[in-house]
Amino acid sequence: MAKKTKAPPPPPSGDAAPLDLVAVRTQIDGIDRQIQALIAERAQFARQVGKAKGKLAAAVDYYRPEREAMVLRGVVDRNDGPLADDVLVRLFREIMSACLAQQEPLKIGYLGPEGTFSQQAVQKHFGHSAKGLPLASVEEVFDEVAAGHADFGVVPVENSGQGTIQSTLDLFLTSPLKICGEVELRVHQYLLSRTGHIEDIERVYSHALSLAQCRAWLRQHVPDAEKLPVASNAEAARRARNADDAAAIAGENAAHVYGLKIVAGPIEDRPDNTTRFLVIGRSMFPPSGNDRTSLMVFVRNQPGALFRVLEPLSRRGVSMNRIESRPAHTGLWQYAFFIDVGGHVTEAPLSEALADLADFAENVTVLGSYPVAVP
Ligand SMILES: O=C(O)C(=O)C[C@]1(C(=O)O)C=C[C@@H](O)C=C1
């Protein structure tokens, strides 16, 4: 696709000439008026699309993740700068979020309390017009979505440095829910405390995964402090708020939410630290043109079983991103394979590979086909 071929527009004034601030601001005011009028017009059209979908039961019925992914990819393809792709994507997500909320805001369950990275993932994917529903555990997120109290849930599944979050994967073994999307979030960790002084710190609270992401930093800077895992980073911040000798590792957000000072940060050992979240819902959506499918495959415990699962995928030219085996809880030494592949379940070659796979596997569950994360 042709991209980034146009030269960026020239700046409003040369380096040497003094900037006519009043004139430039007049230009900006004019552009803002146009942007505002266009956003209003867009919102009217989105409302029309909503009406065309008929009198539906709830906000969730108006939501079209595949269409949103296409819109955002278009934004990235058209971007000639000077703003970065992820900045423009954020702005357009907010516009769509607001357009959708005209019907009724989506309710999104996440591992709370407020200030967690899960909340950041919700806001990144659904925008600020969606209503976040902080819940006590990832299991509760599954339960509330299944019960229809939340439209979707956002749950962490994988960290670039720590690998799979197996407790999340295991919930799919018994859940009827579907994966409707994925969110990748750069995770920056901060050491937060009430006093802001590192020498006061005798205990550091955080989620076990966050403690692991900062292990080397902690060893170097607070070697004698006790490291205490708790249910979430926000819970850690809540505890740090109550004692001068305690600190929390959490996102920068949590400092504002819980009134803590930043002692140090970012302190994650790997600068590319990224967590992948899944969006879970009650139904599947059509293809977006660049999709991923998550499968859960049960096979009899026999020689060559894994090879026979992967062979049809390879033969049909389906790309595989990830495979993970977990105890299936169906019998001793029985395993389920969690496999992420490229493509949508309704489209070839994946649909053909799955037909082949069904001949051999005891059970193949399509956990979901969903748009590949947009930055
Ligand atoms: O295209 C649609 O189906 C719409 O409802 C419009 C729109 C948008 O603002 O672009 C809004 C919400 C949907 O999730 C997808 C797209």
TrEMBL record:
InterPro entries: ACT-like_dom_sf, ACT_dom, Chor_mutase/pphenate_deHydtase, Chorismate_II_sf, CM_dom_sf, CM_II_prokaryot, G/b/e-P-prot_chorismate_mutase, Preph_deHydtase. Its main location: cytoplasm. Residues 294-371 form the ACT domain. Pathway: Amino-acid biosynthesis; L-phenylalanine biosynthesis; phenylpyruvate from prephenate: step 1/1; Metabolic intermediate biosynthesis; prephenate biosynthesis; prephenate from chorismate: step 1/1. SMART domains: CM_2 (SM00830). The keyword Transcription does not apply. This is Bifunctional chorismate mutase/prephenate dehydratase.
